[in-house]
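Can you give me the bound-state structure? Components:
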Amino acid sequence: LAKTTQPISMDSYEGQEVNITCSHNNIATNDYITWYQQFPSQGPRFIIQGYKTKVTNEVASLFIPADRKSSTLSLPRVSLSDTAVYYCLVGFRRAGSYQLTFGKGTKLSVIP
Amino acid sequence: DAGVIQSPRHEVTEMGQEVTLRCKPISGHDYLFWYRQTMMRGLELLIYFNNNVPIDDSGMPEDRFSAKMPNASFSTLKIQPSEPRDSAVYFCASSLEGGSVGNTEAFFGQGTRLTVV
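Here's the bound-state model for the whole set.
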């Protein structure tokens, strides 16, 4: 399984763009990169997933360089409600097989 | 759909007692996962099922832990006997088989906070 490394914590002011980078040096050809968000006393919630280049949805963007050894989650104009733990996962799903392991996560604190 | 439903939300039990955690996945989902979360170890995958069949239980810590999925709408995680070091939040999650290959979007329940005293 590919191992991920991400910062333990980050602080940001409201309205700023936040970029959280995850390293996954031994990512395999089959692996996708997925980010989850977790609030206190809740289960993780899917944010975004990508395989290469750039992916954007209504809440975030995911940038993946050509070598795929790292990825960056970008949260535009964060608000206080974005204070949470963000997890980078590397894994894949095929019929009958599912590799999905969470790392330690990055605790994002948004400051007013 | 109400999402993944776990019960109970909180459980306090004495060491040595049997504990059963319950999960109802989202209807139509083919995969079901049990995770454990602690401050020290983060989120750990314990076991997962595909179409009610256990696929990988390598994360189950000891023989004291067992999981079953008798049908597509129900799963249990049992600890017998329980120990204080089992205290954690246990999450159940479910996911669809369909969709793009590689899709790993899982939907999590609210979790069960277990305290063993």
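A couple of observations. Chain B is about 0% helix and 55% strand. The mean pLDDT of chain B is 92.
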